[in-house]
Amino acid sequence: MTSATGRREVRQGTSYVVYTRTFVAPIHDVWAAVTEPERLERWIGTWTGDPVTGEVDFYMTAEGEDVQPERYRLEVCTPPTRLVARTWADEEPDTVWHLELDLAESESGVTTLTFAQAMTDPDIAENVGPGWDYYLDRLVGAERGEGADSVHWDDYYPALADHYRREFGPHPAS
C-alpha cells in the first residue's frame, strides 16, 4: 500500500509540502538524476535551455506527448547540494510554483534528497501532494533500476488526497 510521505513545514511564514527520499548512491549521482535532462526524463520530464542564463523550459513528458513547456527561473543552483527554482508566471502570480531541492550525503554513502514546494494555495494540496509522492517514487524506481513505470498513478490519487487536505487545511498561525 502506498502511503503519503509529504509533511507540512512552515519556512519564513510560508507553508511548504516537504518530502524526503534516500538513495544508496553518491551525491553526484543523485544530483545528475534530478538535473541532467536525459536522467530527469526517465522519471518526470526534461528541460531545454541554458541554465547559465538562469532560465530553462521544463517539459513534463511523463504525462503524455503533447507537452507544453513551463518556464522556470533558477534562483539558486549549487551543485551538487541545492537547487531552487520558480515557474515564470507574470500573468498568473497565484500559479507560481516555488521548488526547493537539497541533497546531503552521509559518510556511509547514502544520499538524502529533501524536496519542497511552497503551498500558497491549500486547495491544490490534494492534487499536488499525491503528485509529488508519485513522481519522487518514480525517481526512486528509476535509480534502483526498477524503472519508473513500476509506479502507478492510481495507487496515489485519490488514495492520498485526504492526507494532504488535512495537512494543508486550516491551521493556526505558526
From TrEMBL:
Leader peptide range in chain numbering = none
InterPro entries the record matches? ASHA1/2-like_C, START-like_dom_sf
Superkingdom, natural source = Bacteria
Locate the Activator of Hsp90 ATPase homologue 1/2-like C-terminal domain: which residues?
25-140
Q: Which family does it belong to?
A: Belongs to the AHA1 family.
Which protein, by its recorded name, is this?
A: Activator of Hsp90 ATPase homologue 1/2-like C-terminal domain-containing protein
